[in-house]
Task: structure prediction
Amino acid sequence: MAKLTILEFPDPRLRKKAVPVDNVDDELRALIDDMFETMYAAPGIGLAATQVDVHRRLLVADVSADKDDPHVFVNPEILEKDGVTVTEEGCLSVPGYFEEVKRAEHIRVRYLDRAGHECEGEFEGLLAVCVQHEIDHLDGRLFVDYLSEAKRSRIRKKLEKERRQQAAVVA
Ligand code: GNR
Ligand code: NI
Result:
């Protein structure tokens, strides 16, 4: 098991579009385990492969309070969306910022599980929001893309400044 490095906005690698997984094998399952370790340590409720610089269509999530309800989605496809919900979202790739985002309240998703079996499930609440947030990552989209250009650019400048200062401390 290994904790992976999470890319941070505005890293251009977060803008890559992930390609479908063609084989759910032990190598993929090792990556899934490392993604859960990384997500739980962060801590976060979801993680897309894009965020750890792996550009394949794979995400993990666990929105439970006890961190005992892991979900794996390989090649997720949203088949149906219903209703609207607004959530204060955060992102491990945009550390320290939280903003309201409007998304579908219920979704029906087709995906492969960690055994490679075809599944279909209906999700609602925070898990539905999280899956939509993670699928956005797989398409190179971030929650800040739903904010105004002014807000997004303010967040980008602050994160860039923080990173410069961090680099100066380490040097
Ligand atoms: O940890 C996370 N919390 C969160 C809160 C509201 C909506 C979405 C999320 S996902 C985020 C982890 C993350 O960045 N996943 O990509
Ligand atoms: Ni995120």
The longest helix spans residues 149-170. Helices lie at 26-41, 125-138, 149-170. The chain has a mean pLDDT of 98.
